[in-house]
Amino acid sequence: MQTIIKSPTKETLLTPRFYTTNFEEIAKLDISKNKEEFEAILEEFRIDYNKQHFIRDEEFNQSWHNLDQQIKLLFIEFLERSCTAEFSGFLLYKELSRRLQTTNPIMAECFLLMSRDEARHAGFLNKAMGDFNLSLDLGFLTKSRKYTFFSPKFIFYATYLSEKIGYWRYITIYRHLEKYPKYRIYPIFRFFENWCQDENRHGDFFAALLRSQPKFLNNLSSRLWCRFFLLSVFVTMYLNDFQRADFYKSIGLDSRLYDMQVIRKTNESASRIFPIALNIDHPHFFMLLDKCAQYNSLINYVHNKKCNQLIKTLKKISIYSQLGFNLLKLYILPVVSSHNTTKTIR
């Protein structure tokens, strides 16, 4: 059967984004005081533990058309979103490597080897889509996607959290399916244990990068931005997964409990680097996340409903206002100091 080139999913606030940054500013960063740490990380990247890991085996050589149609559509969407996110990382890291070659060869090689990993992941996911006679045109994605500009410190916050939350998402699914193999609807999940170690190593690189630049961590501005990015990453995941509860149910997971565990673990990881952690044990934290997810679903419902455009717009404005208000309430919840987890700061 002929493979169809899939049209990219329409971009929204919750879809994976492509980023660009101030490459000249990054080229000027001084990492000399942490040179040994970066050299150790670079040596791990060079070893390439997963060089022989992303190789399809005989379990892939079967038809997957007997999957429940709704589950198949949700799984294809999961593959597409994951592939897009990995390819976005590849493009950013590849460009950073190219721009830093003459000014910072250690960082340049680290970014080059991380781009190698991301390309490997994206290719593996795209081949998985091929089992459903679909494929993403990654070259078209490169040219057609809008690129969001983030300053270097925002890139570091966002990519650190993206890599760490990716680790916890993959390893949580892997451990669950290892315990309950009957829910492993497709063989790609067997690869998640080694796969997530790539994410973890990438996160460790960005942790070292943040540590090498105290100005990104040790002032009031950085505490506020760390709070913002933690919340942004958690909310994005929570709202996305709330809409895809049926997919998680198909692999034997409760999407809410899964997200709660991933958020808890990522928050703990981030507290080792960031000056603050979110107080996820606050009684209002997950309650407010649930409200945000419900309002987001309501926006999608109104968007797809056939009615007068003016009425639809007014309803969406009202719902967006409620969603924004609850996000603000989440942001102003007391947070926990990473240096003293018994003490809350505002």
Structure description:
There is one protein chain. With 346 residues, the protein is mainly alpha-helical. It has 2 domains: 1-216, no CATH class; 222-345, no CATH class. The protein contains 12 helices and 7 strands. The strands form 3 sheets. Strands 5-6-7 form a 3-stranded antiparallel beta sheet. A hairpin with a 2-residue loop joins strand 6 (335-337) and strand 7 (340-345). Helix 3 (69-100) runs antiparallel to helix 4 (105-130), helix 4 (105-130) runs antiparallel to helix 7 (192-211) and helix 11 packs antiparallel against helix 12 (309-331). The longest helix is centred in the N-terminal third of the chain and has 32 residues, at 69-100. The termini are far apart. Residues 341-346 have low confidence and may be disordered.
Strand % is: 5-15%
Structural class: mainly alpha
Determine the fraction of residues in helical runs and give it as a percent range.
55-70%
Stretches with pLDDT under 50, minimum 5 residues: 341-346
> Which word captures the global form?
globular
Number of domains: 2
Rg calculated over all Cα atoms: 21 Å
Q: How many DSSP H or I helices? A: 12
Query: Biggest β-sheet, characterized?
Result: 3 strands, antiparallel
What is the number of E strands? 7
Quote the average pLDDT. 90
Strands of the widest sheet, in order across it, are 5-6-7
How far apart the termini lie comes to 58 Å
Order of helices and strands: EEHHHHEHEHHHHHEHHEE
Short descriptors:
mainly alpha; 12 helices; 64% helix; two-stranded parallel ribbon
